[in-house]
Amino acid sequence: MKALLILGLVIFTQAVFVKHASEPHAAVFAQLEALEDHPLGKKILDTIALQMKNKSPLSDIAKMLQDLRENLVLQQQDAELVHVAQEADCEAEIYGYNRRIDFASNEITEATIDINKYTADIELLETDIANKEQQLQILANQEEQLRQKRAEDHASFEERQITTPKVVEALDVIAAKLSAIQPEADAEAVLAELERVGGNNPILALVQLASTFSAEKLQNVQDKIAELRASLEQSIIDDQEEEVQAQLNFEAQIVEINEQRAALQSEKADSETKLGQAQVQLAAAKKRKYDAGRELDSATRGKVAKEAECEAWRTQYARDTEQRTVEIGIIRQVEQILATKLEGASSYIKGRIN
């Protein structure tokens, strides 16, 4: 039992001696122990220890380290190429998104201006059309009033054309009767005759009454009747001329109303055409703004997503680059130790094997 204890103490002492070498190898041991803290450093030392245990030549170990280092260098070079391509892709895509955003923003601005313009145009055109309709209704009312007035005036004219000649005819009868009267007839006889005639024949009654006049008064009455007859005949002629002129004036007014109506209808039709065009343009401007809004939203979301992706690429590239740089540094450090401090390194690794 005591012998086993002594043997264990000897083995432990040897291990401590190897692990904590004498002063000449202390620096190498410290470097190698530091490498143990990194996963790659520990893996490399494990691999070297295994190869040394298998009696592999030092050249194989050096070749293994060289291959490992060069592989990392190639990985870094490939990563740099990928990084450059990714940066170019990011720049191109973000530039494209920015152009889409700018274009969509401009489209929204221009469409908004157009919407305001067409909305104002539509309001003006609708007001103009309503005014034209009101003016057309006023013209229709004026025409109706003119036609009604013309019909009434023409009916009055036709009535006068019937009654006035009858009055003239009656005056002719009176004039003929008066011409046969003997002036200064017996008053009592005349009154008796008037009473007999009564209201059934006013002309005859008038003639009977006139027979009591003196010759001078009778002539005066005949002159007045002649003047009245001439005036009535002239009034018939004047009335006919006035009727003709009234009809001409009426027709001229109707023509003027029709011309005004035609002009208003043409202007109204033109405004209605423009209104239809403005409504189509307004709908197009609204759709343009809607489409531009969707495009702006899509481009903005695309840009945000791309920027996030690019940032993730950069972060990954920086992390991988840093890791490979550290790993290449570890390999170079091991290569340098093996190249310049092989004895100390061998002692350390042999201690790991034991």
UniProtKB/TrEMBL annotation:
Q: Which domain of life is it from?
A: Eukaryota
- Keyword entries, A-Z: Coiled coil, Signal
Q: Tell me the first and last residues of the signal peptide.
A: 1-15
Coiled coil location: 108-152, 218-288
The protein's name: Uncharacterized protein
